[in-house]
Amino acid sequence: MKENQPLLESYKLEELTLENRVVMAPMTRNRAENKENAPTSLHAEYYKQRSGAGLIITEGSQISERAVGYINTPGIYTAAQTEGWKNVTSAVHEEGGKIFIQLWHCGRMSHPKFHDGDKPLAPSAVNPNAQSFTPDGFEDTVEPKAMTIVEIKETIQEFKKAAQNAKEAGFDGVEIHSSNGYLIHQFFNKNANTRTDEYGGSIPNRARFFFDVIDAINEVWDETRIGVRLNPSLHEAFGITATEETIPTFDYIVEKLNAYNLAYLHLSEPFTDVSKVEFLVTDIAKHFRPIYKGTLMINGGFDHEKGNKIIKDGHADLVAYGKLYVSNPDLAKRFEKNAELNKWNEDTFYTQGAKGYTDYPVLKKEPVGE
Asked: Which stretches of the chain drop beneath a pLDDT of 50?
């Protein structure tokens, strides 16, 4: 029941009221299997089913052709894609839900097969030595092309245009994907960013691209409708190897974010065991809560009990759930009823079609009255 469940309390993001603090995390699902890479009626059904979340954050949606890094992911840079997303937002709003779109640029976590044989763009020509999900399966990444200043400025404008498209599509706001080893995170990391101009070298310089993107999107959206996602202790995953400057870099970024009145700061707990890496933080929410003065959302390995506890302890305001939302479209309702949770099927996370996407069962509705 709702009593003693902080997760089920409403929460205000300025003038936007969330019915609860259970957030659907952004998750790549690879269902845009069409020439346009546009959302379809299947996407609308998927997100509609999950509109009981206090807030839905969509899967990463690429901001341009140059931003693509995986097959069958929906974009937000063409009219067809914008129209497809419009159907999604309408479906969610009809159910009383709230939905932000995650704006995404993969940077070097891509492959020439997505770019007519050209190398993907990145801060510097440093191969992440990872894999990209191409039309021919998982393939090794290549050395990317170091972005020119002109290409950096163009990419900032691509973020802005995608944000404008998101507004036209009816979203309640946008989340900037500055996490998980993708383009913006690559600028933060000293191993990925070896530039010597104003976008490299010092911590403020490596953070400059990120804040330029926020400022550009702020020309389209009010700050209170812009969220950002960071993964401070990412290490040996998504091509990122942390350094002794990693946490000081994120301390600087998070402190500087206090100058903005953002919708939220979305943080991830470590994806890998970093307990033996002395210069990284193992408890992200506790570390950054005293630094950040705004709404803090946390993600990564939370269940029902841990979600309630971290809010009750004051270390976070919102909790984002990923895999649990894959298999439990009515997750917030299940938390309210303390109901059993469906198990997810990892084999269908990145396949196509309805299987493992819109076919997970929901709780039966209780009869009204006698």
From this structure: 370
Q: Which domains are seen in the chain, by residue range? A: 6-348 (3.20.20.70)
The DSSP element (H or E) to which 86 belongs, if any, is helix 79-94
pLDDT tens digits along 92-131: 999 999 999 999 999 999 999 999 999 999 999 999 999 9
How far is Cα of residue 283 from the mean position of the Cα atoms in its chain?
A: 20
**Residue spans of beta strands (DSSP E) within 67-187:** 99-104, 121-122, 131-134, 137-140, 145-146, 173-177
Secondary structure class of 175 (helix, strand, coil): strand
Residue 161 DSSP SS3:
helix
Which residues on adjacent β-strands are paired with residue 318?
Answer: 297
Task: Report CA torsion sign: 191, 196, 197, 203.
Answer: positive
DSSP 240: B
**Residues facing residue 320 across a β-bridge:** 23, 299
Quote the CA–CA distance of 215 and 209 in Å, as a whole number: 10
- Do residues 65 and 117 touch, judged by C-beta distance below 8 A? no
What pTM does this model have? 0.97
Residue-wise over 6-18: b if at least 16 C-beta within 10 A, else e? bbbeebebeeeeb
Beta bridge partners of 296: 265
Nearest partner of 263 among 199, 149, 175, judged by Cα: 175
Q: Cα dist. 267→4, 25, 226, 229, 355 in Å?
A: 24, 11, 14, 6, 30
Instruction: State the Cα–Cα distance between residues 296 and 142, nearest whole angstrom.
Output: 36
Residue pair 158/75 in contact by the 8 Å Cβ criterion: no
Residues forming beta bridges with residue 99, ordered by sequence position = 56
Residues tagged active-site: 182
Cα 107 to Cα 44, 129, 141, 145, distances in angstroms: 28, 13, 11, 9
